[in-house]
Structure formats: structure tokens, C-alpha cells
Amino acid sequence: MKNHTATSHPDLLIGMGTSDDAGVYALGDGRALVQTVDIFTPVVDGAIDWGRIAAANALSDIYAMGATPLTALQYLAWPRDVLPFDLASEVIRGGMDVMADAGCTVVGGHSIDSPEPTYGFAVTGVADSNVLVSNSGAQADDVLILTKPLGMGIITTAIKREKCPSDLADEAIENMATLNSVAGAALHGHHANAATDVTGFGLLGHLREVCEASGVGAVVEFGRVPIMRGAAELLAQGIWAGGSQRNLESLRPDVASSVGDDQLRLLVDAQTSGGLLVALPEDSSDGYLQAVPGSSIIGRLTSEKTLEVI
Q: N or C terminus of the chain with fewer C-beta within 10 Å?
């Protein structure tokens, strides 16, 4: 309910109107609170790893706004009569470890009895009100940079189906548990005009939000998009998440594509704790790439207001 009176206030700088990563509320002293929440059911088998990934995923919204995380509230739903509390403790420990690595203080939380285990965080950060990074500031001729490879949805689906090689699963888990802190910290120093984190809507879904909010179009060069090793092979075996299929159905009318369906499926693959998608001036791109290891230029923005994959 984006038009409800509860969603507006004179000090609300970014609310629900632009599908941004987090809400931003001015404190009146040049600073702003940046707030977000993310919870989900298990995406991997290991309890500690699930907790780590959930924490990294929740923090990504703060980093995508160019903000610094301050505090977090923890949420846990647990089937107490089905799963042991020792397992819940491992989930929480994984989440706490990543929050500690981020310098974010967990100040409390809430737990409930539930038939399905669910875990995550509400995170509050702080940023300079004058240098916020949102998804609505992208400019035509900006280059697009992606900071983590795609393919997490395919790989986590393979893990759930017990069809993922163990070394690939381990690599994907470390990728998802890796904070986007370096990528977020580099936004200001390299003049980023817009940023978002790539999660459930896939790369093209989140790029569409940037384009719509900023009034621009985009061209993505598939050959330059980093893809996790093994993801394409798993996709070829029919491993594909329902959420990713819904992404494809939603995006197909808006995307002009000269690549095959399997390539397009990789670009709409629903990510968990994916990287940042950053729009910045071309003359700033080399500096950003050097500051953020593993990042890649994948295309550019245009004035045509169309979304194209070549």
C-alpha cells in the first residue's frame, strides 16, 4: 500500500515508491537512517552456513545504498517439535559471526514457533543524506558493473535436489556468505550514480527497476556477465527454480534479446546474497574495478528506455 498515509513523511527521503533496496529517513543533522529487512527459509544444508548467508543477504541492502550498517534485529521462526534447538543455535551463530565481521551490533530480535524454519534480520545503517546512492540516479552512458557472478539460484536448487557437486556447493556458499562491504564502500569514491543488490528478481529484474526509476534503458552484453562455474551445466540438466521461471515470464515482454533461452535464464536466475549492480561514469569504471576484486563491466545505460541483451 504505497499510497497509505503511513508511507509518507517530510523526513522520508526514500520510501516505497521506487522499489529501492532500503528506506531512508533524514535525522535532521545531515545524516540519515537506512533501514531494511530480509528473511528466508533454508537455501543450503548447513545450519551455520544458512545463518551466514542470511546475514550477508540482509546487510547487502545497506551496502547498496552506500551506507554503513549500525544495528540489527534478528528474526527466527523454528519448528520446535521437529528440529532441535541446538540446530537453531548453529543458525544464529552463523548469522552473528557475519554481523560481527560487518561491525554491526545485534541489539535484539524475536522468535516464534513455526512449521517452517525461517531466519533473517532487520538492519539499520547510517549515511550522509547528501551522498546517498539509490536505484534512481542512473544516467544514460553510465557503464554497468556487477560485483559477483550469477548462478546462485541454480546452484542452491541443485543443492536442495542433492544434485550439486560438493566443491561447487562449497564455492557457492562462500560466495553468498561474502559481504558486499567492499563494493558498497567503493560507491562514493568512484562517483556511482546508482546501485542495487541482485537478489530474488535476478540481474535483469533488478536492472529493470533501476531503468524504470532512473528513466533510462540498458544494453547487457551476455558474454561479459560473470557466471558461476557449473551453473550453466546444471541448468542444462533441467535444474531451475520456480522463482526464476516467474522472473522470466515477467521480464520477457520487456527484454529484447538476441541470445538463447538458456542464456536469458541465467540473467533472470533468482539470486541469494548476490553482488551489487552499479551504474557509474565510464571514466570512473577502472578505479571501481580495481577497488572491488571480481567485479566486471557487463554493459551500459542508454537514453532509449529499452532493455536489451546482446
A: N
